[in-house]
DNA sequence: TCAAAAGTGTTTGGGTTACACCCATGA
DNA sequence: TCATGGGTGTAACCCAAACACTTTTGA
């Protein structure tokens, strides 16, 4: 029989799937690895969890090392633990999804020892990554798509002031569909999640759009509440059982 | 700097939250521990993951050791890794949720070395468990409540033949609400998930109810599809953005 | 004949959908 | 004045919700 001590020979890591929205496109922040294994490969930012550190704490640490950001959306998604997924031994990894505003990131980026460099990639441009990171990315992308239909987390990806069209483009990029402008606005505004700033775009070669920010207090309600922000892309009947 | 070898000193386990439905009540299968730490405490069935074993594989193994069942619903929920959660060292645990038919279990239960005995508990009767198992249980219960509104996993908990009232009671027990009989039936039947067996209850002191089984092929579609089985308990408007 | 649960339809209200034209600005 | 995106309303439909009485059986 295996004695318990035999089990204390494995390690675990956290990997962050950091999404951003820029240029009308959903992006992920990847690093080019500076060490073995998978030297020079692109992969998700992540690292071993220290002995005295919780999982989420470790994910925040990695995130801060990468971006300098501390106060961001971070959610545990899934744990990947196939045998053989890491050449150095038995390593399982806990995947976290985070959402940041690309602007903030650009101001504070710094590199660290693990990564030669970091870059944003459009999700459609990524095919192969170090370890099983592609699988992890795909899983997190699925979750993100579900998430934005349940909770208005999309706002985490936008700058503090944005237009309704930008918001709509964000949803369209994440869900990979087109949305009807009038219905989208009707719906969003009916949620009272937005604050009309009474400000307008400047220097645009067309009628300037109104700027909005979102109501953090009300946003918090939506985050904790179960809530249906059902941007259903489908014709499938989304039947609802009453009670 | 910590060298990688230093990280290979931790262990991980899987813990199963096994739900069943019996006697009109949602239950969880717990074990009374036969070894330290937490000797004699009640807790979730779980154990260390072997070096040559995947996570899900380990969860299935534990499940089979406990119940003799192999072909059951099993889903990874969340990983718990606070420092200090395990007295023997750094141990993180991956929580799995599984759904079984209590009848099947009753036929095949066997005990194992880790557990003195196993028993079903009504979820409302559980307050304290070994390790952080109460927190894990609560997390899985939340997930179950969400799951049954998204996918018709409730069927996993029922015997092969059941009545509409039993199905309704199951949903009521999981969601802790009351549902309208006519609306419930209308909705369920409109999904074409059920097969009318043209059989009836026998020896009941009232009008016997029709028996149904569920359509596994159609069920599979629903499982893979995103799908909304929105038994919304709330008055909250579940607004839906078109596309 | 009584108790206990099974079974069954209709109306109302609200949200989703589909859809087309005018407005404001900079070039 | 032209190109570009911003901004607006209405009608049809479908689904959720609310709600009460009759039927069948065993005791």
Q: Which fold name fills CATH's third level, the topology of the largest domain in chain A?
A: Nucleoside Triphosphate Pyrophosphohydrolase
Can you give the mean pLDDT of chain A? 88
- The proportion of residues in beta strands of chain A is 25-35%
Which percent range fits the helix content of chain A? 25-40%
How many separate domains make up the residues of chain A? 2
**Radius of gyration of CA atoms of chain A, rounded to a whole number:** 20 Å
How far do the termini of chain A sit from each other? 52 Å
Largest sheet of chain A: 7 strands, mixed
Number of helices of chain A: 6
Within CATH, the superfamily of the largest domain in chain A carries the name Nucleoside Triphosphate Pyrophosphohydrolase
Overall outline of chain A: elongated
Q: State the CATH architecture of the largest domain in chain A.
A: Alpha-Beta Complex
* Oligomer description: homodimer
Number of strands of chain A: 9
- What structural class results from the helix and strand content of chain A? alpha+beta
CATH first level of the largest domain in chain A: Alpha Beta
Task: Set out the fold topology.
The structure is a homodimer of 243-residue chains.
Chain A: E1 11-22, E2 25-33, E3 42-43, E4 46-48, H1 55-67, E5 73-80, E6 91-99, H2 102-108, E7 115-122, H3 133-150, H4 164-175, H5 181-190, E8 194-200, E9 210-214, H6 216-224
Parallel strand pairs in A: 1-6
Antiparallel strand pairs in A: 1-2, 1-4, 2-3, 2-7, 5-6, 8-9
Chain A binds a DNA duplex (27 and 27 nucleotides) through helix 5.
């Amino acid at each position: 029989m295996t004695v318990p001590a035999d089990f204390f020979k494995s390690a675990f890591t956290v990997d962050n799937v950091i999404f951003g929205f820029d240029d009308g496109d959903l992006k992920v922040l990847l690093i080019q690895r500076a060490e073995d294994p998978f030297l020079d490969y692109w992969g998700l930012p992540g690292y071993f969890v220290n002995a005295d550190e919780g999982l989420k704490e470790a994910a925040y640490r990695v995130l801060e090392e990468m971006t300098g950001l501390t106060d961001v959306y971070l959610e545990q998604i899934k744990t990947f633990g196939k045998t053989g997924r890491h050449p150095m031994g038995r390593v399982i990894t806990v995947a976290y999804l985070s959402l940041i505003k690309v602007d903030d990131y650009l101001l504070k980026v710094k590199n660290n020892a693990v990564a030669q460099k970091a870059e944003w990639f459009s999700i459609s441009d990524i095919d192969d990554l170090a370890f099983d990171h592609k699988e992890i990315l795909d899983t997190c992308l699925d979750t993100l798509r579900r998430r934005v239909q349940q909770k208005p987390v999309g706002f985490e990806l936008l700058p503090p002031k944005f237009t309704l069209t930008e918001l709509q483009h964000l949803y369209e990029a994440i869900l990979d569909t087109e949305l009807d402008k009038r219905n989208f606005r009707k719906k969003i505004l009916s949620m009272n999640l937005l604050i009309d700033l009474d400000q307008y775009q400047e220097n645009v070669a067309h009628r300037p759009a109104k700027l909005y920010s979102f109501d953090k207090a009300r946003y918090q309600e939506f985050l904790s509440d179960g809530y249906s922000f059902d941007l259903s892309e489908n014709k499938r009947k989304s039947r609802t059982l009453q009670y």
